[in-house]
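In the laboratory, one determines a bound structure by crystallizing the protein with its ligand and collecting diffraction data. In a computational setting the workflow is compressed into a single prediction: the sequence and the ligand go in, and a structural description comes out. We illustrate the idea with S-adenosylmethionine.
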Amino acid sequence: MTDDVEQHEGQPEATPPIAGQIFGDRLALAEEYARVLTEEGVLRGLIGPREVPQLWTRHLLNCGVLSEVIEQDETVIDVGSGAGFPGIPLAIARPDLTITLIDPLLRRTTFLDEVVASLPLPNVTVVRGRAEEKAVLKAVEPADVVTSRAVAPLERLARWSAPLIRGGGRLVALKGRSAADEIARDWEKVLRLGIRDLRVEECGTILETPTTLIIGRRIESARDARGARKSGQRK
Ligand SMILES: C[S@@+](CC[C@H](N)C(=O)[O-])C[C@H]1O[C@@H](n2cnc3c(N)ncnc32)[C@H](O)[C@@H]1O
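The predicted complex, in structure-token form:
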């Protein structure tokens, strides 16, 4: 590690100019979220202090660009939001969306509730629980899109997400380099769970490191499911 890096370790990252392109006239909200994460988020152990110098490049921007694959006015459920990724940057970038954040840990949902109230983000609701729990399934309507980042391997993620996606809706999982391998390994099991057309997509190509996604479509009907099984497709 160079002296230069040591000197900057833990220092908040300045707002990158490209953030304006992603958050538009809501950039001040994104800056406020970055401030809260840097202060309360670190203090309460929701993010590591090492994340502070890369809060924008590794987290806020990479999650904000998810907006590119979400249609106008869609409903979104973010499974395993943790400190709010990707759900909060998405809600900041896209006030037209209705977003539900799900996480089982009280410490995290308390923080999320506070962020939602203080920014404020009236388009966001926080639900405490495991995505697969009956109480959670009762509390939320199946959404157009179910997002997640760093929550579970694809098959488990699909098992938790599928019941939360409306027929014809999408699974959108932020993944790293493992995306194609995860699809090759799990597509048959994922198809049995009712999610087809799995593909790897990139969004945020304006960023130095674009965001890699796995996208799949929830089977709409029993006939749709039979068709997918017959053709034995990853599609
Ligand atoms: C590694 S963290 C990632 C947090 C956030 N998505 C991010 O990218 O920073 C995984 C999160 O998934 C949550 N989680 C684990 N199992 C879950 C489940 N069954 N349903 C919903 N959330 C879950 C954990 O509480 C944790 O907040």
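The longest strand covers residues 165-175. Keep in mind that any predicted model is a hypothesis to be tested, not a measurement.
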